[in-house]
Amino acid sequence: MLQSGGPLRLGTLSLHGADPVDRAIGSPVAAPIVTATSFYTDPEAVGLSPADLGADGPFFYTRWANPTAALLERRIAALEGAEAAVCFASGMAAVAGLFLWRLKAGDHLVLSDICYPGVAEVAHDAMSRLGIAATVTDTSDPVNVAAALRPTTRLVHVETPANPILKLSDIAAIARICRAAGIELSVDSTIATRPIDLGADYVIHSLTKYICGHGDALGGVIATTADKAADLRKEALIHHGAALNPVAAWLIARGLETLPIRLRVHEENARRVADYLSAHSRLDAVYWPGLASHPQYELARRQMRNFSGMIAFTAKDGPALARRLAKRLRVFSYAVSLGKTKSLIFYIQTEPLLRGSFRLASEAADAYRRLAGDGVFRVSVGLEDPADLVADLEQALG
Ligand SMILES: *Cc1c(COP(=O)(O)O)cnc(C)c1O
Q1: Percent of the residues in the chain that have a pLDDT greater than 70, as a whole number
Q2: Atom of ligand 1 nearest to the CA of 218
Q3: From the centroid of its chain, how far is CA 164?
C-alpha cells in the first residue's frame, strides 16, 4: 500500500488500498486476471498438508483464495477500515455464509424489519429450519434492538439505508447496545460505507451494486478483523463453496477504482431527481436521505458521507403508473437492481413483499404500509446527464 505521511483518504484508497503486485509477473500497474483454479505448491515451503497454509500462505486453490479476488479483498478492507475481507459469489452468499458460520441451533438473531427481501427470507426459512430463532424489529429506533435481545442472541444484523424505503438505523447507538451485551453486529452497507468506524463487527456489501457499479458482475464481501476473516474464509467460503469468479473479481476491482467519483455524481444527480419528484403534484411521498424532508435527515447527515443515488417514491394507482413508466421511459430502464452507471426504476408492490419476504406482525406491517402505500417506485439514479433524467421522468409521468 502507498503510504506517505498520514492515512490516505477514501478517494485514494479505492485505487491504492492494495497494489496489484504478483511476485511471479512483476508489478503490473493494472490488476491481472488470474483464472487458474490451482497453483504450483512447493511441499518444502508449504508442507504436505493444506492445513499448514495459514492466512498469508501461498495461493493453493481458487475456492480458498485467488490473486485477483485477494486484490479486491485487500482494497475493500482498506476502504472499509477493516483488517481483512472475504469475497463471495454474491451478496446473498456473503449474508447466508455469515449467518451459517456465526449461528447454531438454539441461537437467536435480531434483524432489521425492513431489509433486502432475500435476507429476510433466509432468516425466516433456512434459519428457522436449523433451529435458529430470528426476531425482526424496527432497528431505526435503537430502543427496539435492546428490547429484542435475549440471553441466546448471538448476532444483530442491520441494513442501513434499508431497501426499498431507505429507512436508516443509527449504527453507533446500536453498536453500543450490542457491545454492552457481548453480541456481534453486522451491517449490510451496500448503499453506504464504513460502519466499522461506528462500532460494527462486520460490514457486508453486495458488490453487485455500487462497488462493481457497471451492472456486469455479481459478488459479495464481508470485511472484519483478520482473525474472524480467517475463520469465516474456512467455514463460510471454503466449505460452502460460493467463491467469487476471478473475472467477476477483476470487473468489480476495476469498478471500485472509480467508486468515490461515481458516487459523487450519483448523489448530485439524485439531488436533482429528488427535487424534481418532490415538487411533482402526481406523486405522494419521496424518500431520499439527502432531502430535508426525510424523516431521519439528521441521522443521515451524521452517519452518511454520501446520500447515494437511491430514491423511493409512492404514487396513487402505482400498478398503472408502473406499466406506464415501463412503456414510456427511454433513459431510465424499468429493471431491478441498483447502483449501476445506468438509471433504473422498479415498482415494488407492498402486499407480496410483506407476505413473501418481510412477514411482519400486523402493527409493523401497518407501519410499513403507512410509508410505502400499495408499493414504492425504487429509483437508482445513474450517471447520465441529470437534465436528461428529469426530462425523461417528465415525459413519462406526464
Ligand atoms: C442486492 C442486495 C443484496 C444481495 O446481493 P446479491 O449480490 O444480489 O446476492 C443484499 N443486500 C442488499 C442491501 C442488496 O441491495
Answers
A1: 96
A2: 7
A3: 13
